[in-house]
Amino acid sequence: xxxxxxxxxxxxxxxxxxxxxxxxxxxxxxxxxxxxxxxxxxxxxxxxxxxxxxxxxxxxxxxxxxxxxxxxxxxxxxxxxxxxxxxxxxxxxxxxxxxxxxxxxxxxxxxxxxxxxxxxxxxxxxxxxxxxxxxxxxxxxxxxxxxxxxxxxxxxxxxxxxxxxxxxxxxxxxxxxxxxxxxxxxxxxxxxxxxxxxxxxxxxxxxxxxxxxxxxxxxxxxxxxxxxxxxxxxxxxxxxxxxxxxxxxxxxxxxxxxxxxxxxxxxxxxxxxxxxxxxxxxxxxxxxxxxxxxxxxxxxxxxxxxxxxxx
Length: 311
Prior knowledge:
Elements: H1 15-59, H2 61-91, E1 98-105, E2 110-112, E3 135-144, E4 155-161, E5 176-182, E6 189-192, E7 204-207, E8 215-223, E9 226-231, E10 234-240, E11 252-254, E12 262-270, H3 276-285, H4 293-298, H5 307-310
Antiparallel strand pairs: 1-12, 2-11, 3-8, 3-12, 4-5, 4-11, 5-6, 6-7, 8-9, 9-10
């Protein structure tokens, strides 16, 4: 069948279609008008705020300047505190200092000053955890050549306290906080940790069977009232104190009264109790065999053979 439209008659659109197109056009025009109105309102509000701010600055110049000065002052104080903190951080002494960094002969006596007025002093800080009691760690490497031939006197390795030694047994009479000695003619360490009770007898730790003619590491660790001694990263003995440990501000003495026959390396103090992983990390790093700067400053080069000067 052929449904051709008669020639000369225009095609008529339905009334509903025309009405839909007209409604869509009106809706679009209304949306455009609303958007324009919103933009105009926003612009007017911005202009109003800017005008108000300008008026405030112009009509309240004293208040505005005062507020500006306060902001500048606050910024200056913040920067000043930051600068003071950074200066203190980079210039203050370490809380975990090396008292001897490098290797020193066991018979080369040294005194490490604790006087803050002394430019060569190495200050030792107190525990950083006073809420649970005192704590610290002493760490060093030792090499014992032989045990000596005096069956009565201890050989001094180091102590923090005083330099007054007994003529009988070579132990310090007053302060050992701590004191580390080599026992007479025995491969054992004799360690004294004084307490506030002068009559306290529970202050000694003995570590037997230490290596001879080999480097070994010793760590003396205090936490609250428990003293642990580690040899090569393994706990060797423990002492539970009955009284509060006695601390002092006296000097640190190393290898006094002839010291011991051997060598010492990297004597270091930590202001907190090292854990077992930190102690083993020090052990794995090994001794520092570089001659200590403190030994070089003494200009006592005892490691040079005198044969070269007697020929």
